[in-house]
Amino acid sequence: MLVGPRHFDSTMLAQYKRFFVAGSAPGESDGECGFLDQDGVFLTREKAYVIAFSAGQIRTVDSDVKKLFSENLY
Question: Fewer CB within 10 Å, N- or C-terminus of the chain?
């Protein structure tokens, strides 16, 4: 699994390169997608949605599914 503060930032790129060199680069289906909070704690998309909604951070809601995607925040 790749983790980082932003999509494919320098942190994620470094992880990807290490996996790729080892011949085992992970894909999205290899783990759970989610978010890191300000303390570096992993949150599922569902838990992140609840927190972001409560904090008034969600700019757009695309469906009735209560899952957070980066597009909801920008």
Answer: C
pTM: 0.67
Model confidence at 24, in pLDDT bands (50, 70, 90)? low
For β-strands 42-44 and 34-36, DSSP reports them as: antiparallel
Query: In which band, very low, low, confident or very high, does the pLDDT at 61 lie, cut at 50, 70 and 90?
Result: confident
Q: In the chain, how many H helices and how many E strands?
A: 2, 2
Domain definitions of the chain by residue range: 1-31, 32-74
68 neighbors 35 (Cβ within 8 angstroms)? yes
Q: For residue 36, list its beta bridge partners.
A: 42
Question: What radius of gyration, in Å, describes the C-alpha atoms of the chain?
Answer: 14
Residue whose structure tokens are 């011949």: 23
State the Cα–Cα distance between residues 58 and 69, nearest whole angstrom.
Answer: 10
